[in-house]
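WARN retry 2 of 3 for item q-0093 after timeout on previous attempt; input resubmitted unchanged.
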Amino acid sequence: MSGGETVVQVLLPLALDRPYSYLARRPIADGTMVRVPLGPREVTGVVWPAGKGVEVPEAARLRAIVGVLDAEPLARDLVGFVDWVADYTVTPPGSVLRMVLRVPEALGPERTMTGMAVSGPRPARMTAARERVIELLGDGQTLTRADIVRLAKVSASVVGGLVAAGTLSAHDLPALEPFARPNPGLCPPALSPAQGKAAGRLRALVRARSHKTALIDGVTGAGKTEVYLEAVAEALETGRQALVLLPEIALTSEFLARFEHRFAAPAAEWHSALTRRQRERVWRGARSGSASVVIGARSALFLPFRDLGLVVIDEEHDPAFKQEDGVIYHARDMGIVRAMLADAPAVLSSATPSLETHVNAEQGKYERLRLPERHGGAAMPAISMIDLRTAPPERGRWLGPDLFAALEGTFRAGEQSLLFLNRRGYAPLTLCRNCGFRLECPQCDAWLVEHRFHRELRCHHCGYAGGVPEACPYCGAEGSLVACGPGVERIVEEVAERLPEARRAVLSSDHLTTIAAMRDLIAAIKAHEVDVLVGTQLVAKGHHFPNLTLVGVVDADFGLAHGDPRSSERTYQLLHQVSGRAGRDRQPGRVLLQTHMPEHPVLEALVSGTRDRFYNSEAALRHDAGLPPFGRLVALVVSAPSADSVMGAARVLARSIPNEPSITVLGPAEAPLAVIRGRHRMRFLVKAGRRAPIQDFVRQWLSSVKLPGSVRVIVDVDPQSFL
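OK item q-0093 returned
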């Protein structure tokens, strides 16, 4: 090694389990982004802290760093977070780093962009396309060539022709638009005594600049958002940044509007629908500190905040916080870790906390802040059951007489209703009444779901779509295929038939494929342009519809018969949240649950309002079984292109299970969905006590076997789904 040279460890954003060693002309701070050679190409990596026991190759065998990027190093807490997530999820740290560096445009100096503006006379020869471009750029607008092509719906040659004619000329666009600074003292809300007490406690936690986890446990409509926004205000006043995680960022127009009203500035948004330029702006803003508040989906955890002072996880119970592919992690749990490493409080908010959170609060690990009443004097809705064993719907219908009478009465009173059914499409199953054949996905072990509005059959696991055949593919009988069971489309069809004058809408991911469409529908519901809303679980995401007074649950039993240990908890949370959409304003609300099992503990708890008794009963069952939160689980899903390959790989893994008395391995067994996207699946379930070294056990196990390249093993620590 020549004078002045040093060896640095560089982590690359690839599926690598350790950093690589490189030569540098001088010492480089941890977190610095660098360009390094890797084989025949160059990649961007990050200088990483040297781990214990790292063996550094001889300098003569090392390649040199190509260059140091002109960008601030990643903060120490983010570097630590990458390592923490990788260790906990049994994932290569390079794969986690890839989530941090997912905006390549933001890694170097900020780029200038060239835009086009009208600077000369209109051309002698005008066309409709040229007219659209000139109209788009009116009032001194300057846009990039790509934006002009997209927004004016013209070809690039049209823009080039206007440049050649002297009508358009090139101009440098300004740097990325800076974020407006929210004003924490502008519009403080009028809080109830309970809200004020909770908000004061959260402000104190933020001022302390140390980590603690608090739970805002309030009924639906209690004003939990206003409370944690006071914690955001405190973070702003102390000069630190805040991150608010939401389970469905696409449905948050109401929240964003409320934020802007409170702080007189919009928050930075982070979700998958952003353009590249928007993502770059938020990424750079988080790193520079100019994006003082980010409202985001779970991946916002990996933004490079300059000084993170608060992490809020709203609707913390929501299953959408679990990332199920790539790096598999739970954003609620990782959000708490992100806050801990940043010496910042984490705030969880929910009317129906997850059982894990409830137990942590009961044990004193989390501080519970209760909001027992709805804000503004609104009353909780009255919940009652309709026993379908004694009052069933008419043949071929799904709304029983009691529910339909309530629906019709609500409509005649000029109020809105919600019909909830957590089944997408028209019917969950199509079969042949001649031979009994069921239409299945050709790539998955799952039935095809009919979507009559789109005139196709779809698989909700792999995305396969095809037309509805005229004849049974098995027996050839024509006109024999029938739809079995209801989906939301079938409920809308029934409402249209029986209450044709009512204005109807469907809130389902199949019908609203863009953020703009979802926000438009929500605005239409608030404006009372919809009388009857039919929806899946998307309707339970914290919406506030002031004129909605009736919630009808078409099938309250859905989800109760599953073998998943979380099925009762999940069903309770979902039905409770859906029920909470009713009566949130001055008019009282009511909820009707259609069920064949009125004696089920979940439904009894909903009707009686004994949430904590239900939670404590569920906790006792989990405790006795050694299940989370009192035990640990890790799922290993083994997949391969053929059944023989996956069985062979599972046998190899089964023979290699390490001997650890404190840990039990169940399986291998065929996964409930045995085939997905053409890959056959087997699963193991690793079960252990809270203190058992379960991640080390899994790492040791997997490192001891060599499997064919066609075989994949997915590790899911703390699995939320058992499919």
